[in-house]
Design a protein that fits this description.
This protein starts with a helix and ends in an 18-residue tail after the last helix. Helices cover about 40% and strands about 25% of the residues. The protein is α+β, with helices and mostly antiparallel strands. A five-stranded antiparallel β-sheet has the order 4-3-2-1-5, with no helix packed on it. The protein has helices at about 1-40, 85-95, 100; strands at about 45-50, 55-60, 65-70, 70-75, 80-85.
C-alpha cells in the first residue's frame, strides 16, 4: 500500500516540476531577448526573424529602421530583429570563389534553384 502512495505523489509532482522548469526557461529566454534588444546599436548588421538582412540605421524605443539595400530603409518592430550578423558569415557569402557566389542564377518563375526547366 505504501508503494501506491509514492506513485500517486510522483504522478502529482512530475507535472509541477515540468511547469516550474517551463516557467524558468521562458523567463530566461525573455531576459536574453531584452538584453539583446537593448544592446542593438546603429550600424549593426542584423537578421530579422523573417530572414531579412540589413544594417541598423535608426533606433527608438519600439522600432528599428534597417537599410536592406542601398537607399532602401524599412521599419521593423525591435522584437523582430532576431540576431546580429556574424562577420564570418557575411564574408563567406560575399567572397568570390565561394559556392554561393559561383552558383548559376535561375530567375525563371516557379523554378527551384539549380533545376532545369523544359530542357533549358
Amino acid at each position: 500500500m505504501n508503494n501506491n502512495g509514492a506513485l500517486s505523489l510522483l504522478i502529482f509532482a512530475l507535472p509541477l516540476l515540468l511547469l516550474g522548469w517551463l516557467f524558468f526557461s521562458q523567463n530566461k529566454r525573455m531576459k536574453q531577448m531584452r538584453e539583446f534588444s537593448s544592446s542593438l546599436d546603429v550600424g549593426d548588421e542584423v537578421v530579422t526573424s523573417s530572414g531579412m538582412f540589413g544594417t541598423v540605421k535608426h533606433l527608438d524605443d519600439s522600432s528599428a529602421w534597417l537599410e536592406i539595400a542601398e537607399g532602401t530603409t524599412v521599419r521593423f518592430d525591435r522584437r523582430a530583429v532576431a540576431m546580429k550578423q556574424t562577420d564570418t558569415a557575411a564574408a563567406d557569402a560575399a567572397a568570390p570563389g565561394s559556392p554561393a557566389h559561383d552558383a548559376p542564377v535561375d530567375d525563371a518563375p516557379g523554378a527551384t534553384p539549380g533545376s532545369q526547366q523544359n530542357g533549358q
